[in-house]
Amino acid sequence: MKYILLSLLLVSSLFAKLNITVAYPYIKEITHSIAHDRVTITALSRGNWDPHFVVPKPSLVAYLRDSDLLILNGASLEIGWLNPLVKSANNPTIQKNANGYLDLSHYIKLQDIPTSTDRSLGHVHAEGNPHFILDPHNVIKLGKVIMLKLALLDPKNQAYYQKNFANFKAHWQAKLKSYDTKMNKCKGMMVIQYHELFNYFLRRYEINSIDNIEPLAGVSPNPKHTLKLINTIKNNNVKLILQDVYHEHKTANFISKKTGIKVVDLPHDVGAMRGTNSLDKFYDKLTGQVCR
Ligand SMILES: [Zn+2]
């Protein structure tokens, strides 16, 4: 009887799927490209939500309780919502520094690292800008990190994950080449954005973001700053206002009306807006909206 039970346990562990919970849809997409249906993946947020302020609904705790792996963006992007959920889930496997905890920001060279964390400068991201997924050149790097983690936690599928990653890498190398060519004609363009959400993308393609609609990170627009922006636009050859999907649009529309420059909506994650429901479509849309 004991042996039967033991072998049943062994067999079920051989066929058990890894249960993965991820913070954002883009992480789900990358993980899915490498693991396909050999794992179960749940994203805790939607692509059209403000990634800084996901509502920490108690229903999300159940996913974390059953997870073998938690993959987060990190660099404090989840600071306002994820920690209490992980705490409530009380699952030792996915605690910080445990094997089932993967912080993607540890594998990226962060930009915009503040020299001061003075709160009067706004709600600055203290470790640096966490919005690194906006640079498509980070996709392969993140895919590799995720592949290595999956192979470690689920060695029986290691070869499968490696093979899928090789395909993923080849696919993205070709995509990056086409984006680099497409974006080349917009080099040097001047834009303004709402929050410093698109910095990694803009720097990659040498587009200059000369100011933000929010006067300080995380601080709502005010009339004085908005008038200053209108003057900045009039005195410089600013081409576009880059608007994210989750902030109010009226300030951008007002500035547009006063200056005649166009507002474009940009996705910040997979599923942020119509026509962005895969990683490919997300970057297709992002590059296409900025550089036509
Ligand atoms: Zn931010």
Task: Describe this protein's structure.
The chain contains ten helices and eight strands. The chain is an alpha/beta fold. The protein has two domains: about 180 residues, 3-Layer(aba) Sandwich (Rossmann fold); about 110 residues, 3-Layer(aba) Sandwich (Rossmann fold). The strands form two sheets. It has a four-stranded parallel sheet, covered by helices on one side. A four-stranded parallel sheet has the order 6-5-7-8. Strand 1, helix 2 and strand 2 form a beta-alpha-beta unit. Helix 2 packs across helix 5 and helix 8 runs parallel beside helix 9. It starts with a helix and ends with a helix. The model has no long low-confidence stretch (mean pLDDT about 95). The site of zinc ion has 4 residues, from loops.
Core attributes:
10 helices, 8 strands, alpha/beta, four-stranded parallel β-sheet, Rossmann fold, binds zinc ion, 292 residues
Order of helices and strands: HEHEHEHEHHEHEHEHEH
Shape: globular
Instruction: Let me know the CATH homologous superfamily of the largest domain.
Output: Nitrogenase molybdenum iron protein domain
Mean pLDDT: 93
Small-molecule components bound: zinc ion
Strand order across the largest sheet: 2-1-3-4
Number of domains: 2
- Rounded to the nearest angstrom, the distance between the terminal CA atoms is 69 Å
**Could you tell me the number of beta strands?**
8
* Number of contiguous helices: 10
| Multimerization state | single chain
